[in-house]
Design goal:
The protein is an alpha/beta fold and 391 residues long. The protein has 2 domains: 250 residues, P-loop containing nucleotide triphosphate hydrolases (Rossmann fold, 3-Layer(aba) Sandwich); 114 residues, CBS-domain. Helices cover 38% and strands 17% of the residues. It has 18 helices and 15 strands. Helix 7 crosses helix 8 and helix 15 packs antiparallel against helix 16. GO terms for molecular function: ATP binding.
Length: 391
């Protein structure tokens, strides 16, 4: 069947021959510390994919590597060692042992490794504290809510101290409010721990909230890999475009992705030069940056005129600090209240406090009203880059 697929047979032909091609030509790599989300509808092949990654299923063709070591075809004992030492799994339906306490469940993976009881107790308690279950150690799974049981499953994976977490529809059985709390907790935990996560979901909003990158699967094939913004703005085909058409864009798009170019003054220009630049750009204020594009503040025409009257040769002394610049990672929906308080364009900065652009009401309306359009299948999504021109 593999050869028939390589020769161009489609899924329907394979089905008629009595076989199912669950995953076809899926190739990707996941960076250390990355949350890589695989999403698709039921039957798209995503759960089969994660079972090949952890060695529960052996691919008919192709290879799986963990830290450059191939696990495809490993002897059973070596494969068990990989699962115990490098990869932990969080399941959709918790997979807790009902006759064991919360503490015992959290430390179960360590017990299988043969760790001594004192170390098991220490690491299990630490993991339970991480997920907010301190004080629940002696309860049993049936005494917990669904969300709490999933926290135990997550604690078990964290206690194992593996670098890789595999999460198969881990939150899909939870109520919406509990699901969001678990998503928040996962984001918070991984900001501290830096685990490499492969997260399987059929929920596009969940994928876009959690994933550094997302792989969209259809009929066993990965049709697009990209960031949330790339998939939302540049879907690879009509299938992906239909998937994202009802997504709340304001929750996905960030300030950095919608900001527009701006001209920034250097702090050592004269007041006359600054006024001339404002006139050319038909504005009464500009942002000011240093030689490394780090934001220093804002300068208005009135400030420039006062600097002239005060005899200043450069505008540095007249710059007014910006109290609340916008971090580029800020979701667009968090900007609305801020824009209502600050009618001027909002400066957008990166992690190094460098000015990358400005947010205007026009750019927000444009981003909200934009219709996603499909590119040719397999085409790379365009990445928008804002720029700043220093004067």
């Amino acid at each position: 069947m593999v050869r028939r697929l390589e020769q161009g047979a489609d899924q329907e032909e394979i089905r008629k021959a009595g076989a199912t091609a669950a995953v076809v030509d899926a190739s990707f790599s996941v960076a250390e510390g990355e949350t890589f989300v695989v999403m698709g509808l039921s039957g798209s092949g995503k759960s089969t994919l994660i079972r090949m990654i952890n060695g529960l299923l052996t691919p008919s063709a192709g290879h799986v590597y963990v830290d450059d070591e191939e696990i495809t075809g490993m002897p059973p004992k070596a494969l068990r060692d990989v699962r115990q030492q490098r990869m932990s799994m969080v399941f959709q339906h918790f997979a807790l042992l009902p006759h064991r306490t919360v503490l015992d469940n959290a430390g179960y993976g360590l017990r299988i490794k043969g760790m001594d009881n004192a170390e098991i107790d220490k690491h299990a308690r630490e993991a339970l504290a991480m997920v907010g279950l301190e004080g629940w150690e002696q309860r049993y799974p049936q005494q917990l809510s669904g969300g709490m049981r999933q926290r135990v499953g997550l604690a078990r994976a964290l206690a194992a101290q593996t670098d890789v977490l595999l999460m198969d529809e881990a939150f899909s059985a939870l109520d919406p409010l509990i699901k969001r709390e678990m998503q928040d907790q996962l984001l918070s935990l991984n900001a501290r721990l830096g685990k490499t996560i492969i997260f399987i979901t059929h929920d596009l909003n969940e994928a876009m909230r959690l994933g550094d990158r997302i792989a969209v699967m259809r009929a066993g094939r990965i049709v697009q890999i990209g960031t949330s913004e790339q998939i939302l703005n540049e879907p690879a085909d009509d299938y992906v475009a239909r998937f994202v058409q009802d997504v709340d864009r304001s929750r996905v798009l960030t300030a950095a992705s919608i900001c527009e170019e701006c001209t920034a003054l250097k702090a050592d220009v004269s007041p006359d030069e600054a006024l001339s630049m404002m006139h050319r750009h038909d504005t009464d204020r500009l942002f000011v940056s240093d030689g490394g594009r780090r934001l220093l503040g804002m300068l208005s025409a009135a400030d420039c005129e006062q600097a002239l009257r005060d005899g200043h040769s450069v505008v540095r002394e007249a710059v007014v600090a910006v109290d609340d610049p916008v971090d580029g990672s800020t979701p667009m929906n968090a900007l609305f209240a801020r824009m209502s308080r600050h009618p001027v364009p909002l400066p957008v900065i990166d992690d190094e406090q460098r000015l990358v652009g400005v947010i205007t009401p026009g750019k927000v309306f444009e981003a909200l009203s934009r219709e996603p359009h499909a590119e040719s299948v397999g085409a790379p999504a365009a990445v928008k880059e804002a720029s700043v021109s220093d004067v």
